[in-house]
Amino acid sequence: MQINTSSARTILDSVAIRMDESRDITRYIINLLIFLGLLGTFYGLATTIPGVVDTIRSLNLSDGENGAAVVGQLLDGLEGQLAGMGTAFASSLLGLAGSLVVGLLELFAGHGQNRFYREMEEWLSTITRVGFATGDAEGGGFDQSVVATVLDHMVEQIDSLQGLFRKAEHSRLETEEKIDVLTGAMLRMTERLESAVDPTDVLVQIAENQERMNDTLSQQKVASAPQTQEADPEAKMRLRSIDVQLLKVLEEMSAGRTENATQIHDGLARLTRAVENLHNNTREIQGE
To answer: Which stretches are tagged as biased composition: Polar residues (predicted)?
Structure first.
């Protein structure tokens, strides 16, 4: 979540206004307590002053009154005056003490609100997108929304480009692994081909053995002419069997050659495709 600087400033101003509105209540309570203290003080003075006047009037001696009666009237007047002064001082003390307590509570609440405001400002600074200040003069600025849109698009393009680079790196690693596997397979195949017997040598040995067999049969035919007619069918059957075995050997050797050639061709084709894929991925990355 990202917001621009103007929105963040609007949020902070709204919170500050709400906190100031909540402080107005405590200010009103403090002023009300002070007013009640002053009102009690004036009420006490309003009851004390008439008591003083009445006391002074009562000090006039009339006919038939003695000193004890005057003293009693004086004490009664002083009692009323002291009661009024007590009311005045008590109401003033109550108002001042109440305002002091409420002021202390407002101080603590103000510290808490200021701490909350700072923490909120720090949190908003973490999600605020930096913008560009627009000029006051005509044509001296530009639209922040357009710039923010362009910046968001650039960020998205950079993220997609990073994803493409990661995919290309992953495919490159996979291609290298496949090339290593194919290289190992071709090396093992080459070693097998090198360790295998050369078919040409086998054919030469078979031809030499056949020539020696022909020479032996010729000699036996000259030495034992009468028995040749009886052994001729058996010799022909053996020669035919030898020819059949030779044909099977030749077919197996040709089949082995074909299989080896097919494996080598498949390995080269896979290696070629892997190299082409690696080359295409490299060109795509360079083109982007």
So the answer is: 215-230
| 175-183 own/partner pairs: CB under 8 Å, 24+ apart | 175/274, 175/277, 175/278, 175/281, 178/270, 178/274, 179/271, 179/274, 179/275, 182/267, 182/270, 182/271, 182/274, 183/271
| pLDDT per residue as tens digits for the range 156-199 | 888 888 888 888 888 878 877 877 787 777 777 777 766 655 55
Contact call for residues 288 and 164 (beta carbons, < 8 A): yes
Cα→Cα distances 261→9, 88, 255, 256, 265, Å:
77, 121, 10, 8, 6
Query: Side-chain half-sphere of 125: how many Cα atoms within 13 Å?
Result: 6
Tokens describing residue 17: 């206004």
Q: Are residues 129 and 149 in contact, defined by beta-carbon separation less than 8 angstroms?
A: no
Q: Would you give the end-to-end CA distance of the chain in angstroms?
A: 29
Q: pLDDT tens-digit profile of 121-132?
A: 888 888 776 655
